[in-house]
Amino acid sequence: MTQNLDLTDIQGNIIKAYGAYNYQKARYLFLRIDKGDKGRKFVGAITTKVTSAVPWEKSSKDTDSAVKPQATTNIAFTFAGLKALELPMASLRGFPEDFIMGMAKRKDILGDDGPSDPQNWDNIWKEEVHAWISINGQSIDAVIKRYDWVLEQIKASDGGVTLLTGHRGENGEDDLPYQDASVLYDATGTPTPKEHFGYTDGIGDPVFEGQINVSARVLGRGKLTREGNWEPLATGEFLLGHVDEAMEYPQTAPAPWLLALNGTYMVYRKLHENIGTFNRFLEEQSKHFPGSKEMLAAKFAGRWRDNGAPIVNAPDDESKERWDKQYAEADEAGRKKMLTDFTYNQDITGAKCPYSAHIRRINPRGSLEYGVKDAYDTPGALVNRRRILRRGLPYGEVKDATRDDGNHGIIFMALNVDIQRQFEFIQQQWINYANDFKEGNDKEVLLGNHDANNPGKVVLQVEPGSGKPPHFVSKIPRLVETRGGDYFFIPSITALKLIAAGMVDPT
Amino acid sequence: MATKSGNATALTVLSPIKNGTMGETSYADMTRERCLRLPIHEKSPLSKVPNTYLARLFILDDVFYESLPANDAVFNFSDIWSFFSDSARKKSLPRRDHLKSKYLVFSSNFYGDLDDYLTGLWDKWSYTDHDGNQRDIRYIWEHCVAFDRVTDCAGFIQYIKRCQLDASLFFNGSTDDSLQEQLKALYLKQEFTKFAVAHQGKSAIEIQQAFKAFIARVQPDNLSSPSWFPGQSTP
Amino acid sequence: MSNIAGKAYAMNVITPIRWYMVWINRLIFKIALNRPSTLKGLITLSLIHYARWVIIPRNAFPRLDENQPKEDLNYAYMLFFSNFNGSWDQYVDSFTFAIPAGLDLFWKWNVRYPKSVPLTPFHDYIRHNQIDTAHYYNAYPMAASNDVKSAKKVKKALIDFNAVSSDKAPDDFLKDYNKLLNDLQLQLGEMKPTPIVSLSSYEVKKRYEQTQTH
Question: What average pLDDT score do residues A17-45 get?
């Protein structure tokens, strides 16, 4: 039985990665709610402009769709924020422990230590954050226009809410009232899907039941069946109030039903990228690596930097050339398939895509069965409940590629119904640890919380039986540092209206 | 017997604790506190007991009443009878069981023969408790039924065997080597990994010389040293 | 002190089983022992050091003295002991995702067992019948079961290599050495202390360590 989602009720950022719809600029605001009644009124005002997940029209005759706006707006709350909005205790106590604690207090689970420790975060995170508002725009002007509108609403709240300051900025500021983000542009000014390390980002987001055009997108992005096909994941992995992969409604939903239905949880993380260190590290390591520098960079991520080619299908410089040729000749659908439709079934030993590669760690597809056919209920049994929707954009500018201390990184947002089971599990068990990959404590290269005093290594596997030694990448420095973030609840539009009206009633 | 898997042995011991109290504290609670306050990892007295892979102690206070709803019935006649007879409905509820004694449960996974292991437990178990007193194995079992009759190692072995239960299925997801063998292997794995990383890309002669020095240092055939020590919790 | 010792978690679960069903369970365990394919999923998961199932018939609780009251029980009891790697949630989740049928096979005959899917009733059942460990000892807190198994391979390969190749001419030595590394390429993960899988257990350990140093 296929499921139709109520797209008018779901906030648009859950379903759409705005960056893929030509929204090149974004601005994130964080607020404190000082007075319950005025705060609720403010939420009501913002709700009038909250962007839903309704498809944008292709032609004006298309009556089921909406006009694509110049700017979008979405809103979400921390636990403290929901408390400040005076949700009933019977609703509040139904939220899960991870969300109640918030991200800073989960630092030991997440490995946010050393330079990533909350005490080193942007100043804004030293305050209690209550609400998050995001504006995505097709131009910076559209973003600013919507931002000014939000400022008017804040003013009109008459002391009900405060816009928090304390973001680090481009020119050494540490007190900005917003976090800006933007796609990166190439030399000709054309927008690219890249992040600051040069990797192509945002390729294989999960596909779940109820999304539009599933059959065209599900290859390599849904769940792998025993027969080797791809099916969409259960809706309840990403939206509360829907059945999940364990054949039940997510247990992380607060009462009443309407508060939870079509909502989800968001992990917001500001991740600073140490550009200088990364470039030096890659340069240094590639001197000893039997392959090109780009091939080594691809081994870290599991994809080639230039076009995102999965290394499992283009494992060395030579095969990459062939892959590129085929890619150039493929049509739009063929290209998408080449980027996402693959497994590690022919690469059980990691000779092509190493176990430590970013994309193999965050989504091992069927490979945790280790080639033992029928060992598990389904090949993706250990993976299907560990998926996250990834949203977000790069921020800042690399002005000096030899330095770490500029303002550059990624605003990373992960959406899931169970932060502990999905996002935190990936971060802890698959990024910062590797027992599931039988690699002890070897951390993933790019995102791992590598310890400067006791730096780690990874093994880049080679063809077994070839007599060649595997390649060790050692003395891995901390390449990415957490600069702030928290856990948010993204309510449905119905729930927003209930919250705004003070009508949340779990009786 | 299913209690063995190769050379690995599963020991399950349920020792009844005397009913009654000393002052206002029951014997069971005193026993529990002694277990809870045992030092951990390399300081645990079990680290001194030869060939202990993994072991635990806890108190079984009672069994649980199955109050959670679930459909467990295989032959589900009572469910149907329940429609017609209220007494049948009541009878189909789970029964309430209670234990008349509390039990000290000791569950150990170890290498080798049971008698050897229990001898080690009797001889080697020792630690300094939080009040600074030196304690042997009798301190844990002190309040168990009939333990006061245990006076020597043979008596201890006999006592434990009376409390022992067989496993219907013992699953060994690891190895059945001696603990020294396991620890030496872990040590070698760790050291060799470091060696391999440090000597990547060096010349044949350099690696060969370094390897010989490495072997001389780590002594792969010498199980006692150098090695990890039992319960070692940091590198 | 805790259910956790380094990378291992000690689980104890006691569940009632109708006394006349005990033979079925015993039979299933016997089949599992003799047919390795029954345990294929468990072996591939590779999260367990050692685990056991113990069935205590109604009249088989140890009685050591005339003065010890005799147990009078309606049910037999099944005790399950596991030494696994990861947190409670991670372990129970992994097991229900990967081998739901196997779990049902072993527990099916227990009173009010809810089946392993959907997950929450199964979670609740295990939690309901779980007893916390008072003292847990692990001989290798930094090693997962995967590490113990791979260490065995490393040790053997190293000793064999040393015997055969260490005195060869340098170029032949290097060839053999590279082959050794190739053979061991999936066994060379570094072992460090466990990541913190439970904040409450971590807090308990921190407090414990404070009392030790004072």
Answer: 97
| Sequence spans of domains, chain C | 4-128, 145-183
Separation between Cα atoms, residue A422 and residue A420, nearest integer Å? 6
Residues of chain C numbered 92-121 and touching chain A (CB < 8 Å): 93-94, 96-101, 117-120
**Which residues of C fall within a CB distance of 8 Å from A348?**
none
Q: In Å, how far is B22's CA from the nearest CA of chain C?
A: 18
Q: How far is CA B131 from CA A358, B24, B45, B112, B135, in A?
A: 51, 20, 16, 34, 11
Contact B149, B155 (CB under 8 A): yes
Residues within 8 A of B (CB atoms), C 175-214 only = 177, 181, 184, 187-193, 205, 208, 211-212
pLDDT tens profile C71-126: 999 999 999 999 999 888 888 888 888 888 888 888 888 888 888 888 899 999 99
Cα–Cα distance, C212 to B1 (Å, whole number): 42
B59 membership: H or E segment, kind and range: strand B52-60
- By CA distance, what is B201's nearest residue in A? A288
| Contact: B200, A288; criterion CB under 8 Å | yes
Q: What is residue A414's three-state secondary structure?
A: strand
Neighboring chain A residues of C186 at a CB cutoff of 8 Å = 349-350, 438, 459, 461
Partners of chain C (3+ Cβ pairs below 8 A): A, B
Q: How far is B52 from chain A (nearest CA, A)?
A: 22
Length of chain C: 214
Please report which confidence band the pLDDT of residue B135 belongs to, taking 50, 70 and 90 as the band edges.
Answer: very high
Q: Which residue of C has its CA nearest to B48?
A: C139
Q: Do C182 and A465 count as a contact with CB atoms less than 8 A apart?
A: yes
* Domain assignments of chain A as residue spans, ordered by start: 12-194+255-268+484-501, 271-481
- Check CB contact under 8 Å for C118 and A382: no
Q: Which of C9, C88, C97, C194 to mutate to test the interface with A (most CBs of A within 10 A)?
A: C97
Element (H or E) spanning A182, and its range? strand A179-182
In residues, how long is chain A? 507
Task: Tell which phi-psi region holds residue A450, choosing left (phi > 0), alpha (psi between -120 and 50) or beta.
Answer: beta
Question: Strand A25-33 and strand A131-137: pairing?
Answer: antiparallel
Neighbours of A79 (CB within 10 A): 21
> What is the reported pTM?
0.96
ipTM value for the complex: 0.95
Nearest CB to B185: which of C63, C124, C152? Answer: C152
Cα A216 to Cα B108: distance, rounded to the nearest angstrom: 54
A457 touches chain B (CB under 8 A): yes
- Measured between alpha carbons, how far is A170 from A172 in angstroms, rounded to an integer? 6
3-state secondary structure of A407: strand
Alpha-carbon distance of A499 to A496, in angstroms, equals 5
Neighbours of A310 (CB within 10 A): 27
From chain B, pick out residues whose CB is under 8 angstroms from the CB of C61: 14, 16, 99, 101, 103
Give pLDDT < 50 ranges for chain C: 214
Closest to A69 in 3D by CA, of A86, A85, A97, A48: A48
pLDDT digits (tens, 9 = 90+) for A473-489: 999 999 999 999 999 99
Distance, C-alpha B64 to centroid of its chain: 23
Burial label for A464, CB within 10 Å (0-12, 13-18, 19+), is middle
Per-residue pLDDT tens digits for B176-229: 999 999 999 999 999 999 999 999 999 999 999 999 999 999 999 999 999 999
Q: What is the DSSP letter of A198?
A: S
Query: How far is C127 from C14, CA to CA, in rounded Å?
Result: 10
Question: Chain B contact for A288, CB < 8 A?
Answer: yes
Mean pLDDT in residue range B66-89: 71
Q: Which chain A residue has its CA at the smallest distance from C38's CA?
A: A375
